[in-house]
Amino acid sequence: MPLRVAVAISGGGSNLQALLDALPAGSPAEVALVLSNKATAGGLDRARRHGVQAEVLRNPADADEWRGRLQAERIGLLVLAGYLKLVPPQVVAAFRGRIVNIHPALLPDFGGPGMYGERVHQAVLASGVRESGPTVHLVDEEYDRGTILAQSRVPVLPNDTPATLAARVLEAEHRLLPKVVLAAARAGRPVPLGPDLEPLSA
Ligand code: GRF
């Protein structure tokens, strides 16, 4: 049985698209459900075009609604891919170790409450660091603080704006996230990946 994956989104869903493209029928993981807190999230249409069930949460703060949907669909992994609301703590507790988030900077730096979207890349540029890149981490009760599973690095270039840096990091996200999901499917749970994006030996 493939690992059944739910993806939570709030926006365009390009990471969702990367997962849909990387997980054709017969893959060890499949996107079985897409949840959004916003009816206008473009990712909902991407999912539906792929024949994937896509739903707007009636109340994103309602843990029972989350648990009900995830359990009914027999979800083994929840991926937060541009989901901008807090997942209720009871859901985090019920799915501990089975929720991952993708963040567009090298955590533990440039994360935490309010650090999303352009602000992340502005902070990276203001700091003067020479590298950035996405992080996938386990979700716990604090924003962007759970165990880091995988990162990849891209250069920060002298003429970068938040938009050019965001675009470079986003491309790296699209490569990184499917690797984490496939490794989770093979291992039966999310596992850390090394710099080569292969699972670290057990
Ligand atoms: C990505 O940069 C991701 O790291 C962040 O939100 C953005 C979502 O982009 N959490 P998309 O909706 O997948 O295009």
Written overview of the protein:
With 202 residues, this protein is of the alpha/beta class. 34% of the residues lie in helices and 20% in strands. The chain is built from six helices and nine strands; from the N terminus they run βαβαβαβαβαββββα. It has a seven-stranded mixed β-sheet with strand order 3-2-1-4-5-7-8, with helices on one face. Helix 1 (14-22) runs parallel beside helix 6 (162-187). The two termini are 23 Å apart. The structure holds 5-O-phosphono-beta-D-ribofuranosylamine.
Q: Which structural class do the helices and strands define?
A: alpha/beta
Task: Quickly count the helices.
Answer: 6
Q: How would a crystallographer describe the biggest sheet?
A: 7 strands, mixed
**Fraction in beta strands:** 15-25%
* Rounded radius of gyration (Å): 16 Å
Number of strands: 9
Mean pLDDT over the residues: 97
Shape: globular
Report the helical percentage: 25-40%
Ligand inventory reads: 5-O-phosphono-beta-D-ribofuranosylamine
Strand order of the largest sheet: 3-2-1-4-5-7-8
Low-confidence stretches: none
Distance linking N and C termini: 23 Å
Helix-strand string? EHEHEHEHEHEEEEH
